[in-house]
Design goal:
The complex is a heterodimer of chains A (308) and B (387). Chain A has 308 residues and is of the alpha/beta class. Chain A folds into 2 domains: 3-221, Rossmann fold (3-Layer(aba) Sandwich), CATH 3.40.50.300; 226-290, Lrp/AsnC effector binding domain/regulation of amino acid metabolism (RAM) domain (Alpha-Beta Plaits), CATH 3.30.70.920. In chain A, 36% of the residues lie in helices and 29% in strands. Chain A is built from 11 helices and 14 strands. In chain A, the strands form 3 sheets. Chain A has a 6-stranded mixed sheet with strand order 6-7-8-3-9-10, sandwiched between helices. In chain A, α8 packs across α11 (293-303). The longest helix of chain A is centred in the middle third of the chain and has 16 residues, at 166-181. Chain B folds into 2 domains: 2-40 and 188-386, no CATH class; 46-154, abc type-2 transporter like fold (3-Layer(aba) Sandwich), CATH 3.40.1710. The radius of gyration of chain B is 28 Å and the shape is elongated. Chain B is mainly alpha-helical. Chain B is 63% helix and 5% strand. Chain B contains 14 helices and 4 strands. Chain B has helices spanning 2-17, 20-45, 58-69, 81-89, 103-109, 123-141, 189-219, 222-228, 233-261, 272-296, 300-317, 329-335, 339-352, 359-383, and strands at 47-53, 74-78, 95-99, 115-118. The chains are: A alpha/beta (308), B mainly alpha (387). Chains A and B meet through α2 and α3 of A and α1 and α8 of B. Chain A: Keywords: ATP-binding, Nucleotide-binding. Chain A: This is ABC transporter domain-containing protein. Chain A: GO terms for molecular function: ATP binding; ATP hydrolysis activity.
Chain lengths: 308, 387
Amino acid sequence: MEITVAFNKVDYKIGTTTILNNISLDIKAGEITGFLGLNGAGKSTLLSLINGLRNQTSGKITLLGTELPSDDGRLRSKIGVVFQETALYEELTTFENLEFAAALYNLENTKERITEVLELLKLMDRKNQIVKTLSGGLKRRVAIARGFLHDPQLLIIDEPTLGVDVEARHAIWSHLRLLKSQGRTIIVATNYLDEAQALCDMVAVLHKGRLLTTASPDYLVSRAGYCLDVECDAEAGEKFIDILSGKKGVLRADTTPSGLSIFLKDRTLKKQMLDIIVGTGKINGFRFRSPDLAEVFKSLQEKNDHVP
Amino acid sequence: MIKRLWSIARLDLILWRRTPFAIAAAVIPPIGMAMVLVTLSLAVLQQPVALVVDGKGPNAQKMQRIIQTDSDAYFLTITDAKIAQRMLDTQEVAAVITIPSDFDEKVAKGEAEVGYVLNNVDIDFSDDIRRSVDRSVAQFDAPQLKLDAEEEEEGPAGSVNPEADNQYLPNPYRVDVYKRDLRQTNVEWFSYQTVSAFILLILNVGLMGTALLSAQDIERKTSLYLVVSPTPSWQLMAGRILGGLIAVMIALLPALILAAYFKVISPPLTHWPALAAIFTTTALAASGLGALLGALFKGSRLIAMAASVVSTYLFLLGGGFTTIAFVPQWVRNLSAFVPTRYAIDGMRQALFYNNLDGVVLDLIILSSTAILTIALGSFAVRKSQLV
């Protein structure tokens, strides 16, 4: 498969502080790739190396066949960027923001293209609304519309659903999936594992400037295990851990303030484990869920000696 | 390219128009300055003075008449000594002139005095009154001298006063003064200072306005969007400067039309193109400096502060408050590097002189400043966004 962006042993430092350390990564064309990590992991910095806002300290980055840094305007016109802060002109209407973007990217048939994009992102009814009066979710959609208005080969989105409600979040995800289905390569930086699961074909997990792993979101989740949260008192919790540790299919069991969390290799083990627990002692409740990002990191740390 | 430049300029104009605070911040200081100029121009022409006439004789009345007719100098209240003193105490008048009761007797003996008590808190106003009283006394003593010889047809100062033909007093002065003015008429103080108000308007809208729009860009991170776009840096700068130029013209044109309509400015017709060129290049240079500050500094507060300081120095060192040719040499040397000096010189030359000497140089320097800001800003605008 064609490679859109290739990082080869890339470092980025500010003074003596290392922000990104020895990153090697290939981003495939036509896929949604997620940069996954907690705040300060280096996700936004990695994005800014691609969009040209920063230059790497060492190593090689190739973007659409061109080595970075590059001051080539044609290369910049092949990428679309959606910043963490929407970076829209708040006093302008949705249409005026897109019209300005169209002029910057020297687009022809501006009105038709803007209409097409607004329809695609279901923003036609907001066309003449001043941006500062839009909700956070709508502003994000306008920013995404602006990002791919010029039909870029690569769309870079930093935190696509930061600060938006659940409904808007799902709407944005479906729009991004739609863009992917049209053949675009998309890079998304996110804090949320569920977002990566919902959107990405592949994720690069970053932690403190290092690349921990690249894998599919489902693989990461399965590696961390499906989680069974049990509410119980501390004494019962200790008893359950003793019984469950070493059982087949149990990856890990940790105490929590409200009881314990048991990580299972397979969803289907849920009932079997619950039966064991209920037969052993009293519980106040339970919940079955996917692991969160911190739990994924923990599982990765346990299995990677090099992880700091 | 034109489409991009116009889009950036149009964007800035829309943002400016939809931010009433920005319009107010740009327009209020020059309007305030114009009002101060009007007030000051009235104040510097006439000083409020109380006249007490205690003498009843013909000479006392003649002295009174001379002082009364000098309406250019005094804004006169004729009253008694008690009220005059109260007015002086309450600062309603700057001086009390008294023609004493024995004035006629003393005139006959050649010992007469016109007394005045002066609130000399301000040397400028005080000297005006001192000169005016001296002039009134000189006119009493030598009526054959025409002391107000501003009108060309009346001939040079010191000629025989036709109104004094029936008086045969010898001219007590042995030295005459012959003056030659550069202009047919004096330039009114208010008209002369109007240039400063125009400069302030251009600096406020062009430099401050453009710098603040750049600051807003950085604050809202829209600058990042501009920088990652394929638009070349120089076009980002030039578009912003074009926006600044149009904004200045929108603010300046009504002011110019009003000033011309009320004859505050009345340059020769042939000077209007030069004047338009000076205003345009000044607006370009001011907007360029604003855009450059916006590109050089990070952070809206820093940009706003830098723009404010730079505007103030450009105004003062360029000669906004005084004619730069009349200030100490070291200030003149310093002002040679200040573009507003050439703007002010060019405007005054086109407005108040009969020729356009030096205006071409002023235009070249102002245009070069604008081009230089685009060149420097082009480097800075992308660099400033990089970490």
